[in-house]
């Protein structure tokens, strides 16, 4: 490597050794945000678990509603077919 004024070498480590005040500020803010987010993360996790558990009830309700709708359609189909057959039997007499 070349030496520059004063016999000091300019290498990669020397260039990265000094931190800019902006980088120090960002690191400090990052630490503060991390401390704040521990409780926020816990609250968010609890909220997500509550939502996940409630969606189970929602899914169960939708399945039951779909089954009831299917049974109602089958009932209506047989009711209409049987009522037409009964009417045809009465018309024949």
TrEMBL record:
GO terms for cellular component: endoplasmic reticulum membrane. Its main location: endoplasmic reticulum. The chain crosses the membrane at residues 60-80. The keyword Transmembrane helix applies. It comes from Gasterosteus aculeatus aculeatus (three-spined stickleback). Keywords: Endoplasmic reticulum, Membrane, Transmembrane, Transmembrane helix. Coiled coil: none annotated. Pfam families: TRIQK. InterPro entries: TRIQK. Belongs to the TRIQK family. This is Triple QxxK/R motif-containing protein. The keyword Glycosyltransferase does not apply. It is found in: Endoplasmic reticulum membrane. It is a single-pass membrane protein.
């Amino acid at each position: 490597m070349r030496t520059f004024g004063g016999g000091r070498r300019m290498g990669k480590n020397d260039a990265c050794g000094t931190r800019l005040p902006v980088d120090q500020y960002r690191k400090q803010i990052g630490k503060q945000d991390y401390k704040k987010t521990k409780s926020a993360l816990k609250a968010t996790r609890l909220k997500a678990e509550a939502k996940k558990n409630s969606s189970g009830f929602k899914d169960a309700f939708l399945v039951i509603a779909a089954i009831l709708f299917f049974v109602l359609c089958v009932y209506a189909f047989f009711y209409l077919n049987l009522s037409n057959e009964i009417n045809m039997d009465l018309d024949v007499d």
